[in-house]
Write a structure and sequence with these properties.
The termini are far apart. The longest helix is centred in the middle third of the chain and has 28 residues. The protein folds into three domains: 125 residues, Rossmann fold; 75 residues, no CATH class; 171 residues, Rossmann fold. The protein is built from 16 helices and eight strands. Helix 15 links the parallel strand 7 and strand 8. 46% of the residues are buried. 54% of the residues lie in helices and 10% in strands. Helix 1 packs antiparallel against helix 6. The protein has a four-stranded parallel beta sheet with strand order 2-1-3-4, sandwiched between helices. It has a four-stranded parallel beta sheet with strand order 6-5-7-8, with helices on both faces. It is of the alpha/beta class. The structure holds iron/sulfur cluster.
Length: 383
């Protein structure tokens, strides 16, 4: 059995470490790219959302490297992701890729069902104690990975050499992926903290009383928010425009709430978002639609300069959130920009919109004037 899985940002670091520690033969698909998306788009129903197209592209590329089994998470509720595992199996079989698909979800809330599926993948050679121990370690690593990403978000606008900053980020991820002990994981985070501190104190350009950078919160659909290819590197682009980005969703927070049913808390809990969203959206609408509304309110209350709402075209939960966010924007006087992505999204169009939004926020901060983001929205679909 050669197991593969969908790419979603840095998720591969955690899955690869977990599977290898359990002696599961794992095939990491090539990083998401235009070619991955083209392959997946050819097989996907036209109205499907970006994650399905990229997942299919990942599995076709992984099949070429010998993968024959897919491990994918499931889901419940109105979002289509819940049946993507089965849909992908059927599409791939029809296209001549006879994959076995293992859906890692707690069916009907039963964690035992989830544990049995992991045991099936891990095989009887691994004891329950070993499996649970490795899952715990992988989770610890995912919290450290989230911390790593957060440190880089803060570092980008405060260091003057973007190439060096991205190199540090890459090195930190390599150290983390190679760590095989709890202390090794902690050391990789400490290494990044130390490196950033050192660069900052030696940075002549940024060290001399530069003002506090703008702060923008990113809310939206989890796959698009976590996956830089899907978001056209929004976080990195903003960082290089001098913005401190904060993300409302992190991998370990999502895993803690969706896979472990809230039994463990990840890097960023999404629970406060539900309460905040209630006056505007009082019930679950699938995906993270309700969380997007609550997170935007939290950013406004914390004094952020602006919010970017990021999601793929045809994503129903986020379309619900999009219809509500203009009211949040008005009530809290916080500019909110919508960024919808699909396979036609181009980097130049996104960059132009980001520059216009940052420019607007800078003027607002300077003049302290109430400016709303819809003045700069040229279109929801990026050019
Ligand atoms: S949340 Fe939206 S984009 Fe994500 S799988 Fe569901 S419908 Fe698709």
């Amino acid at each position: 059995m050669k197991v593969t899985f969908p790419h979603m940002g840095n998720l591969w670091i955690i899955i690869k470490s977990l599977f290898e520690s359990l002696d599961i033969d794992v095939v990491v698909p090539p990083a998401n790219s235009k070619s991955t998306l083209n392959l997946g788009t050819k097989l996907s129903p036209e109205s499907s959302c970006l994650p399905l197209k990229l997942n299919l592209g990942n599995f076709i590329e992984a099949a070429e490297a010998g993968a024959d089994t897919i491990a994918i998470t499931g889901g419940v509720g109105p979002c289509r992701f819940g049946y993507y595992g089965e849909l992908e199996r059927q599409i791939l079989h029809d296209a001549g890729y006879p994959y076995e698909v293992i859906i890692l979800e707690p069916p009907d809330g039963s964690l035992l069902g989830l544990a049995k599926r992991i045991r099936y993948l891990a095989g009887r050679k691994n004891s329950w104690a070993k499996i649970l121990g490795e899952i715990r370690f992988a989770y610890y690593k995912s919290v450290a990975l989230d911390r790593t990403e957060d440190l880089i978000h803060a570092a980008r606008p405060r260091l003057s050499n973007p190439v060096e900053t991205e190199r540090m980020y890459k090195e930190a991820k390599t150290r983390l992926s190679q760590a095989t002990s709890y202390s090794g994981v902690r050391e990789s985070v400490h290494w990044l903290q130390g490196s950033i501190r050192e660069r900052q104190s030696n940075d002549p350009e940024k060290g001399k009383g530069a003002g506090e950078p703008l702060r923008i919160g990113i809310v939206g659909e989890i796959y698009t928010v976590l996956d830089p290819f899907s978001s056209v590197d929004v976080e990195q682009q903003l960082g290089q425009l001098g913005v401190h980005v904060d993300r409302s969703i992190y991998l370990s927070g999502w895993v803690g709430e969706n896979i472990f049913h809230g039994l463990v808390q990840g890097y960023r809990s999404m629970l406060p978002y539900h309460k905040l969203a209630k006056p505007y959206l009082s019930h679950f609408v699938g995906g993270h639609g309700q969380e997007s509304v609550g997170a935007a309110i939290q950013y406004a209350q914390e004094g952020f300069d602006g919010v970017i709402h990021l999601f793929p075209l045809t994503c129903m939960p986020e379309i619900v959130a999009k219809s509500i966010l203009p009211k949040v924007q008005k009530d809290y006087q916080i500019p909110i920009m919508t960024l919808m992505v699909d396979e036609h999204t181009g980097r130049a169009g996104v960059q132009t919109r980001l520059e216009a939004f940052v420019d607007l926020l800078e003027r607002k901060r300077l003049k302290k004037e109430p400016v709303l983001a819809n003045k700069v929205q040229v279109s929801d679909a990026a050019k």
